[in-house]
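PT: before anyone asks, these are the final sequences, not the draft ones from last week. 637 residues across everything. Please model them as a single complex and drop the result in this thread when it's through.
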Amino acid sequence: MQPQEKTRHWGSETGSLARNLRYSISLYRKNNLAVVGAVILFSLFMMAVFADQLAPHPEDAYISHFERRLLPPSSEHPFGTDQAGRDVLSRVIIGTRISLPTAFLVVLVSMAFGMPLGLAAGMLGGRIESLIMRLADIWISIPALVFALAVSAILGPSLTNAVIAIAFMAWPVHARFIRNEVWHIRQEGYIEAAQSMGAGKLYVAVREVLPNAFTAYIVKITTDLGFAILLLSTLGFLGLGARPPTPEWGTIAGEARGYLPDVWWISIFPGIAIFLAVFAFNVVGDGLRNTLGVEEI
Amino acid sequence: MRWPLDERILEVRDLRIQFDTFDGIAKVLDGITFDVAKGEVVALVGETGCGKSLTAKAIMGILPPEAKIVTGEIIYKGIDLLKLKEKDRASLRGKEMGMIPQNPMVSLNPVLTVRTQLTDLINFKDSQDVSLLSYYLGRSRVAEQKNTASEATKILSDVALDNADRVLESYPFQISGGMAQRVCIAMALLGNPSLVIADEPGTSLDVTIQKVILDLLEKKIRERGLTVIYITHNLAVARRSAARIMVMYTGCIVEIWNSSKIFSEPFHPYTVGLKKAIPTLLGTKMIGIPGKVASFVNAPSGCRFHPRCERVMEICRKEKPPLLAIGEGHSVACHLWTQR
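LR: through. Structure below.
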């Protein structure tokens, strides 16, 4: 009597986690650029972990050697040496330990403020939503760079203050993003079904809306990491972020700008590092977008 | 309406719901009144967009925020639900009243496995409010997990899912519509509700699966003595499953009668038209109802059906006919009766 029901499978026979993961990876690998980005990112992370072993002169992060200043690239110093005689290659490698963690910190802090506010705005609606979203609108209208300038003028230029300034400016974007996701997801049938089974607002927010918003959010966070690196090194270059002799990429490039164009190697190599990191985060974000099936955001 | 209802579980009185739209006020429910007796199976039928699902959502208390209840009472077991606080109403959902959703394929959260969703529900159903923290702590306790795991399997086997364990490990999009519908039924019945609203059960499934689902639902109704409101536009389903049928037209109930009588001896011109519009497998000519469904914003004056009615009279354009009992369990809102 009972008809045999057909079963649809999503890229796998058993629906096991390992199979689904392999399927996702096979989707991701279709995007060659994203694979390149993933390789670059992986190398950068490895560089950060093993910086002491990889850098030919790890002590050069902070210690000057004036006897060998401004040497052009050679087999001894592949990226040359800077105005204080420090090995540029070593400083660029050790710089990953500054740029990557601070970028994550910036994104985490802005997430910590933006996500709950956006979720609250989307779920509660009404006046609370208007209040949060109008505040976010006003916030977004302040140029981040100008605000960072003001912060460093008041609190003094340092890496910590740059992180505070950027995270402080980034939360409205996260709040707005999450709130828009909540609005889309709230129209879905499963929200109504959950409500009809007695789910409260908090349950709907945490167990129904957030997990569904996360696929799109991960893509956004990935590209945000790239922007965070870019902004932090911009501030470093302008002398508003990390202070010398911190081997932050933007700071290294900024310090040496007086020696341009003849001494090009001090600025060019950290510049390439910044470019590679930002590029990698962006294309990885793109790849994730395709893999996770997220629409253009 | 003088239907002998000894024990009414649900009374809806003059329920009016409207939406403020750009074009004006849309009066989507225009004074709905009906009773449901304990243990009764009724069907609410009508064309798409006539307010059937909105009635169901109003009873459940899950109206969209834009919907405004103007007047009316929804009395469940002697309590007016519309006067309750949201917190008290939420505690009724899933436990006193359940809803089987319209489209099972979109009614399960796509990013969680069936097991996770069922376990969540099992954990939440016993206690009034489990805090999220205690919920997450509880999830890590092995003994509790084992209990809920075997309970989940039992619940799914109960709705005749033979490969329950495989379904539990699947994501909603990995299972078929029939399976998803079963899972939805299992979830809706999990908290042992006394009133179940089945919103177009099986409409999105093909006819053979639909029959299986309806059989299953009927079995559950008999087993547990549930009170059920079927919401459907499928007259055959209504005729088959329900004892009483309420016919709706653009936010008004036009006729209520026994399902055995309503299509053999319909009174209201709209019900007559509906009956004629049923396609038959023998290929006899279907006759539709002329005109189109009235808009809610500029609803016709008087009887909302009058522009499409074959037997329209002068009074129909001016006055809204009241829903009057005209016989044993038979109510009609039509001037053909009031003018007699």
